[in-house]
Every structure is written in C-alpha cells, then in structure tokens.
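Quick entry, no commentary yet.
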Amino acid sequence: MAHLEIIAHRGFSARAPENTLSAIRAALDAGADAVEWDLHVASCGTPVLIHDATLERTTDGVGAVAKHRLDELRRLDAGTWFDPRFRGEAIPTLEEALEEVRPFGTTVYAEVKGYRVPEDLDRMARLVRDVGMAERTVFISLDFDIVDRLSSQDAVARMGYVVAEPRQFEEALRRARMLPGRGLVDLSHDLVLRDPGLVRRARAQGTDVAVWTVDVIDEADRLLEAGVRRFTTNRVATMVAWRARRSGAG
C-alpha cells in the first residue's frame, strides 16, 4: 500500500489551540506527516497564522487581523479560548511556524485565507524560499487566483486548489494540470464520499488529491478505498493509529 499522509488540520487542533506553535508541536509529537495552517497578514504585510479574518473567535482581540500591527497581534492571547492551560499563547508568524517544523522533515500545507495586496503573496513565497522550506511546502487556497500568483513566484513549492463545491472541481483540475508534478486538488471529503470517481478522474490526468477534514474512521476507510492517500484531520493521533492498522493489514 502506498504511504498514507496524515495532515494535521490547523496543527493538532483537537489537542491545542488551532494555528499556534503548541498545536504544531502536538501534531509533530503525534506523528503527523504534515501540518496545515491558515494565513492572514498584519497591517505591515507580515504573514501570521490565524484562520479568521477577524480576531474575536480565537484571541482576546477585536477587529480585522489586517488592521493591526504585528506588535499588536503578538500581544494578544490566542490560547485561553481553547483552554486556560494555554493562556498567553501568541499568534505565530509564518517564519516562526516554518522554523518550528523545519528540523523534522515535515511537509507544510499553507492555506492562504487573506491578504491586502498581491505583494503580500510574493512575500509569503519568498519567505518559504529563504527558510529553505520551498520543497516541503504546499500553498493552498479556495481562491484559485491566489494559488496562481504564488505559483508565478515560486517554481519549486507545490500548489493546491481547494475545492468545497462540485462546480469548482473541473476548474481546479484544469489549473492543477498546468503545474505537472506540482499541482494537486484538495477536496472536501464530503465530495469524495458522494462521488468517489473524482479521485480516479484526477489521477487519470496525472493530478494528486488530498481531502479535508477526515475525523471519522469509517469515512477514512471509504476514502481510502476511493484512492485517497492524503488525509487532513483534526484527530491526528486517531488517524495515525488508523494508518498503522491499515498498513499492517495491507
């Protein structure tokens, strides 16, 4: 059986506050092959890890991420909302997160959620190169134009087109095919459960597939039978154990 890649969604977000260094460390400790995180930018354009465009859900701050200076974002508490044990957890910068995973040989799925100007995307691509992580980075986004811009700035990093609705699949596949060896489609797992043939169609055209977000073992089994080999999950330890069982059985 081909290797099954377990991708930690926002870090090990079932065990630590999402998109924090603690969540990344927990994912690495649990045996994840890859860590996925979300990117917005501070008012200066510095990329930071946070899912929402606003601060309220996962920090003690208020307002838009892009309206705050980096030093303001760094003073916020991004951990207490999850558990008081994580009080004082900071919003990491992209550079800090990359440095955290770099010694471990881990792959990064960097999902770009928001930016101010296109040059912010160029900065992300340059930062990944400067840290020496381009070969282990997959830039992904629901906004296909973001992925195309990043691809134009980096010929080494892989690129993933995130598909949430069936109508997006053909366009995502078309764009991914234009990046031979570097492009993939990142599908909602619900889409594949409803239409397993999507994986076969992508593979037939030389394009790899990842799926998000798989937390139920029965669904993981069905996705595996459909040909999926890259699984994004909140339940990292559970899925790592599942992979060990399936690999042993295979």
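second:
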Amino acid sequence: MRSTWKGGLILTSAAAALLPGLARAQSASYFDRSNNVGVLERPRPDYQALGVQAGGFTIFPSLTLSPEYDDNIFASDKDKTSDEVTVITPAVSARSNWSRNEVDAYARLTSDIYASQSGESTTDYQVGANGRLDVLSRENISGGLNYGHFTESRTAENTVEDASSPVQYQSVGGNLGTFQVLNRLRFSESAGANRFDFQNTTDFAGNFLSQAYRNEYNAFVTGRADYALSPELALSIAESFSNTVYDQKPPTTPLDRDFTSSETTVGADFDVTQLVRGQIQVGYLHDSYTSTAFRPVNGPAVHARVEYFLSGLTTVTGNIDRSVLDSADPTSSSDVQTLGGLRVDHELLRNVILSGQGSYETDQFQGIDRTDHRVSFSASGTYLLNRHLGLTGAYSFLNESSEGAARITPYTVNVISLSLVLQL
C-alpha cells in the first residue's frame, strides 16, 4: 500500500516534531552525508518546537487546522462537485533523550469534515512505536509496530471508481532490522509483515460492493550492502523479497491473485562537492502469480533521488521510481508504476519557505487493457511565525487520463488550502 495524492502540504515546522526517529546508526565518516544541507532539513532553532520534558522523554504535541477548497471531490468529470473541507489533525509524539538506545512513539488523528457532502467526511488515525538498541558504537538492532485506520483518497491510483463513499481500511504491521558499519563496509537487513483489511461499500446506485477480496497479508525481507570508495561515494547492492496472500478470490472472477515479488539492484550513494547529493539504485524486478492466467511481471527497477544545491538558499530535488503495486481491480493482477518528479525549495527568509513540485506518472495495469497517466503540480509558501505557530498556503493540481478498453473516466482536481500549525 502507499500514500495517496491529497491537496495541501504538511507544514515544515510541524514535520520536524512529528517524524519519529527510526533506526539510526552512530555517525561514521565514510557514510556521513552532511556535506550539504537541504532547505527543508536546515536547523532553525528559533522556530523549532522544544517539546515538553517528561523524565527521559520529550513529548511533542501539535494541532493542524486546514480549511480547503476542492473543486472535484468525487474525482470524476462526469459529476464534478466542489466543496469546502475542514481538516483537523491533532498529533503527539514522544522521543527518548538517552545517550544510547532510543524509543519513539506517536499517535495521529485526522478528520476531514465536508461542508455540503457529509457522506465524504472521514476520521483516520494511526499509532505506532519504534525502538533502537545500540549493541556497539556502529551496530544496532531496531524494530517497530504500527496500527491505523485509513481512507483511500478518491484520487488514489488504485481505488474503486464507482464507490458511493471513500473506501476505508485498517492496517497493522511490524518490522525488525539490524545495522552494522565496519570501516568501509555497511550492512543493513530487515524483515517484517503487514496486514490490510478493507471495509465493504456500495456504488452510487446502492448496490453492494464487497472489498473482502482486497484483504491481504504481506511478509517481506530486505538486505543491503554498501562499500565506501571514499567519504563522499559508496557503491551498493540490495535485494528484497516479499510474499502477498489474499484472504479470498474476487467475487466476480475465480482468479487467484496471490503473488511473490523480488528485486535486485545495484547503485551509488554520494555527496560530492558542494553541489550534489543522492542515491541511485537500478536493477531488475520480478513478480510471479499463483494463477497461470496472470503473466509474470519482469523488467527494470529504478529508485533514484538526487538533490542539487543551486545555492545555500535553493535546493532542487529530482526523483525517479519504477515499482509494482497492488491493483484494486479484481481482474488485474497488479499495477506497474513509473514516476518522475522535480521539486524546488527556496528559503526566501529564515522563516519563509517557498516550494513547488511537479510529477508525471504512468500506471500500467496487468491483465487488463488499461494505462493511466497522471500529471500533478503543487506550490506552497510556509511562514514560521515562531516556534509555536506556522502558516502554510498551498495549491495542488492533478490531471488523470486513461486509455484502453478498461479505461476509467478522466478528471482534473484543483485544491486550495490554508494550514495553521500549533505546537509546543
């Protein structure tokens, strides 16, 4: 599963307080990528939340209020309906202050309240915890657990087009990993499992739409090794494997959609001169399915993110990704997604951040004749008033077109939002 496109951007001031500290190894000179600092990651001591001290922990509470205007809430040009949406997001995170080891926990609730179309209103929540045990100075063991109730956006790549209300689901997951640095060598390994349960819905005519065929269990293992040629450049090789099992077959077809996925990539991790930092992984992916009716998916795998530091005040970030996603269509085995994007962040003033980003995405559904094309753009400006208060204005645009015998209805969505963050 993956997060979906939604109008509005998270405030820079809140993000630093809400992100839990995942597994972090002690700094090692050969893998320290701090030659350059991006606009969004630059420390701003006068504007960052201090939190509330509670024994060996620091607690970071926050509240985000975001009125939005969405000109196409159903993501359909056949029935283009606009509405005003109020998004309320209280959140809290706790982070340990220990000299060794670390424990983080977080809880977040998001309510989308529609002014006219109350049937679209939803409340989601998520709780989780992460921990890191420092075995040696450059070795650790980490793990995490999470649980949440979520709503698929109407603009998600893989959602039910004719559902009368947004599809909701629960997820629970856990992971365990290790990390070692041995001079020029760095190793990381992880394993985990996730469970997704979808709630049934109806179409606009009131007909029952079962989503039970989407309930799945997914288990995965990953491994990666890096070798540092210098303090600025490391080469890597990575391998991942996952197995997905669905609870039942779709009601409209006897096809078994269980599958296994594997991916092998090689690449580079670099931070050279005062201009460029990034990670590039390229390789081969393979998905095979239990049902012989579905052809295996083979092809290139690409995961790349490169930051160009135009100046100390401007960061340009480009990314490319090609991967395989689950498909909500019961007659399709999967969705091969290729995504490319570009983002620019500019520090106009110490407390004023301007951002703009655009992306192009193709989703090629396997087993059916359907290819989607998605073009998105967003622009935002964040004003940090002080360490307790921040304001962001944002505009988002999404255009989706589709081709093939199983194509969906094309649409465009424009969202304007104004977000206020209160934090301690």
